[in-house]
């Protein structure tokens, strides 16, 4: 299989993470993976959802959307339709759950960090890009809280990144583009921590069920990609914004 | 860890599959796994969604709901709220995708099989019970189509069942009840075919990320449970309804 | 006119009332009248709607729904459509009103009994079956409250049941099946108390207006059917659950 | 019991029916019964709902609404809430059903008459006033169709009017005002034809169930009131508009 | 250009303002401008929206709707559609904003005046008629508050009226009817105070952009029309209701 | 009055227009005016709304949205709320109307150009920035249609830009920032063509009505600002993308 731009099966697309892409939010990160671009903003709100009230614990939650022409043909706005699609709900629940797995809500205190992931351009892998970028935006929001002395100890417990793997025309490949994704036999999204543990594994056989050997290959490839993403996150965070 | 009713960690709850639970639908299956009970009905509709029109291919889709008092405290109806929750959407997309993986839509022809999974009582594992029961209801609907000579060759390619596994207080356990699920460190749903291949793997670390050894244990346990479920499905299907 | 199963014009279909059909709710009753089956669950909630707050009085309310394939052809879920139909609203208002007519809300105290009537199979008379079954579920919920010593004196003041009558091809008939209902000239639903008084009379001439003689015949027939239903309720309640 | 303005228990409030209250619609009738005022407009549309297409038959349907300050305290608009209340749905279904009972849909031909009943001021009895007024607006719309030679034979088969009766503080009374209605033990709406037959009987015991003697008294009183309303309709229709 | 009824280009249609059109609201005004008729009711509510709470200031807000057959062909109810159109929202925001510009919210105190503008018949200029009529209804509501001694000093600071002007077939005209409006090159709505100042100018070139000379002509014409409207308002207010 | 960055009252903020900000749409323009940033994408769709079908004419329409943290505090998504606010509807109707005023829909042919204006950061003047940026995106979409030979003659008849003016603390100022806008006495949005004519004038006195002299000053200032914006548009369009 020939991948676009001569990319190897185990190779990520070029990744770029820009902090402070806009000036207002506590965190504002543009993540670009190939042609996929997601703007991840972090907003701190000094209240929590009703189910956390009085627990002393905070909350981290995410919302995900695409601008209508992020896609090859224009997609109708969910606001115009008057409701979210199942796909959007599924993705924003995944992002929130992933981020909560590396933050100590007790140390965060009774406040919420909102992560808004707005896809400006979509070429596959938007949900994993959103997790990877939102992690950096969350780091910036936490930094803001510590500078304001609103929290004392850093609640973030580990790094976090995500990538897609899959099988396309029989090949096990890393970081699927839209073209590849649309014809993949298997599509799997993996979220891992810096400690090399799994937070989420979501694998779907679109047409052809897969066996354990495939699975082991997917996991190995995903870990490799996630390691690279964590390096890009690290150098973005270390750069003085 | 002591499980209820002295159940072993690798043991399923009692499973019962009743066909023709109601008389009107083409398939009507009540599946009971412990205290969890899901009514799965199959309806044949002689048309397909717009994206399949003119392709000669059929469609299989699912809807999932709970009656309000399936749960310990009454849950507000989604019809009264005016919209589906993210959880419901996620589950019904999963059920539909899983069933489509074992049916040849070309052989089904341009018609739709609707699988309605209505949870009458919920004690954990409703989504995997729904998949396991809906598979049997789909078999009945296919049988109906063959008897009516609307289709000639059986489009069902393999058997299909699903189960949950997870880690509770450090123990790897099969088929989590509600009590266990609500305090699980890891929760994983596995959908497999009779050929022993994976159709879906959805694993989530609620609090504590998991490593590969955990994953391998989960998969082994799941396969064991799914084999048992497939035997129950088989004897239900073989019984003259 | 020949009715199905050789039923006489003044004869009810076979009636069966099963208590504790599911285990979680305070009351859970499956009522079957011929092929019509309605699951009626009662849930106690320790709060009242805003208009009852601070009055010392409780509330009894009902919700009604059908699973999609309760009907001959699949009906779209109201949750998917995002709103209740007029028919559903009309029916659930009727059920709630009927049940409130035999309970002393002062004695119930500031709490709500929810009656959820979920139609599993529909063959005419679902709203009157729902009232008749929900009455038994309400009795169980009241029993629960008395056993828990949450209320001291039984707030239920009388028994309650409901039935349909109508005119089909010129014949005055009791307990219409779907086939009969769909071609009826007049369709009337009657709710009565054990004291033989009317709680609701809702009669509609679909095509041919009716006169007083018809009306008197309808009422007589309805009372006869309701007396039989009350016996079935009585023996169900007297059975140790 | 002392009724307002010294009205007798079997006496209607003053009734006035004004045709051509607005100029645009095919029929436009303001009906005033005491302080209750309903504007009933009839609109002819040269198409039918999907379920009547190709049958050669027409349709008559109604919509009902109140302006926000028709009531003693301002009621929120249903358009602002984004949905119709159960009460509104129940009423507009009743009005449509009642009007269809006196029109031959075959003679009407494949077109729809919409009856819009907008309550400008509400003092009890709005639904029965709406039926009584909408009947006259429908007559005007039919007249328009005959003058335009769109239909040849008059499809209206009988006259139609409606009134409320009830029991207030033990008294059987005709045409309840809001004050009376809000404390009534029994509230009943009756729709009758000129031939003296019933189209709808909807009786509800709010607190105290009623017996057959009550019912017979209600019916007698209602018929008396309806006869008077039909005279007012007749003289309104006979006046050259 | 020949206008209907031989009206001159700078001439208003006949204007009539009737107070106490209905009896329940604090203010109830029917304004008729030619065939356009709008019922404007004012309701006093002893609370304010959340953003005004605790400020000591009141609020004035408006809602606008048309009955379905106000228009030449029946328009679907927004309540049936389940949402307001953009046009309705735009108009009700305009009416509220205009009325707030002539009232001292501090003197009004923490209460709300709702102005409901229901169009009974529409022949162009409904939004400006609504503003002109709602002003009078607001005056009546303020009068009511002063008589009840709920407020001490009159919060109304100036008179207010509104009119449309535009260019039709090259002619600058005052007070456009529907026929004229639908073919206008420019359509402008002007809201002015008694002091001759502008509260709102909303001008739209439908097809042909306009220049400053046009604009100056529009403003002059509008002021002339608004002066006439204010005289009609004045004599309506001075009449003992 | 001291404006931020020492800006003069008649001075625009720095303006930057970047074409091809994303790669997928037919037109993709990022417009930045000070801290306000709007992404305007143009999408061509080969069909028209139902009211244009069969007319041979095309359509140009706009949608407007803000990402949640475009604003100082996070704004809830309209998609989550399930409906558009009145403000959004008003703005997107304005943008569409403005763009249609400079395009010959006959020459465009039966196709639609969608202009999606997504505000990434909001600091006042987002609607006028959206019009100014969307014009350039529309030019790019038209260019695309001409290169594809889908249209033969350029349907764009004139240039178009928009700006806000207003009165702040008694000063007539150009291009209001959020801080200024929130305390402005008068706020006016002006849309003009290259020929110096008005397409839209929308002026609102928030507190203090304005007179004609103010209006003339507003118009002069607006025209000055719009001339500058048109130069920036021109040089952006002339740059080879």
TrEMBL record, chains A, B, C, D, E, F:
Q: Where does phosphate bind?
A: 87, 125-127
Q: What class of enzyme is it?
A: transferase
Q: Which InterPro entries match?
A: ExoRNase_PH_dom1, ExoRNase_PH_dom2, ExoRNase_PH_dom2_sf, PNPase/RNase_PH_dom_sf, Ribosomal_Su5_D2-typ_SF, RNase_PH, RNase_PH_bac-type, RNase_PH_CS
Which reactions fall under this protein's catalytic activity?
tRNA(n+1) + phosphate = tRNA(n) + a ribonucleoside 5'-diphosphate
- Can you give the residue ranges of the Exoribonuclease phosphorolytic domain? 11-141, 160-225
| GO MF terms held by the record | 3'-5'-RNA exonuclease activity; tRNA binding; tRNA nucleotidyltransferase activity
Which BP terms does GO give this entry? Answer: rRNA 3'-end processing; rRNA catabolic process; tRNA processing
A Pfam family found in this protein is RNase_PH_C
Superkingdom of the source?
Bacteria
Alphabetical keyword list: Nucleotidyltransferase, RNA-binding, rRNA processing, Transferase, tRNA processing, tRNA-binding
**Entry-linked NCBIfam families:** RNasePH
> Which HAMAP family does the UniProt record give?
RNase_PH (MF_00564)
Protein family membership = Belongs to the RNase PH family.
Subunit structure and binding partners: Homohexameric ring arranged as a trimer of dimers.
Which protein, by its recorded name, is this? Answer: Ribonuclease PH
State the species of origin.
Desulfosporosinus lacus DSM 15449
């Amino acid at each position: 299989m020939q991948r676009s731009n001569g990319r190897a099966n185990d190779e990520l697309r070029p990744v770029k993470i820009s902090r402070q892409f806009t000036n207002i939010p506590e965190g504002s990160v543009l993540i670009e993976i190939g042609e996929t671009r997601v703007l991840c903003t972090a907003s701190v709100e000094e209240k929590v959802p009703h189910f956390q009230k009085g627990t002393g614990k905070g909350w981290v939650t995410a919302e995900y959307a695409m601008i209508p022409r992020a896609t090859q043909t224009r997609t109708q706005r969910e606001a115009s339709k008057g409701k979210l699609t199942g796909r959007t709900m599924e993705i924003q629940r995944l992002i929130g759950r992933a981020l909560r797995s590396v933050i100590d809500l007790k140390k965060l205190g009774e406040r919420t960090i909102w992560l808004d992931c707005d896809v400006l351009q979509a070429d596959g892998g938007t949900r994993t890009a959103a997790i990877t970028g939102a992690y950096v935006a969350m780091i910036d929001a936490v930094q803001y809280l510590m500078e304001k002395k609103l929290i004392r100890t850093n609640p973030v417990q580990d790094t976090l990144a995500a990538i897609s793997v899959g099988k396309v025309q029989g090949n096990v490949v890393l970081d699927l583009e839209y073209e590849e994704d649309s014809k993949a036999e298997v599509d799997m999204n993996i979220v891992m921590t810096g400690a090399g543990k799994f937070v989420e594994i979501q694998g779907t056989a679109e047409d052809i069920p897969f066996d354990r050997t495939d699975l082991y290959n997917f996991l190995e490839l995903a870990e490799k990609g996630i390691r690279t993403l964590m390096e890009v996150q690290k150098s973005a965070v270390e750069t003085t914004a």
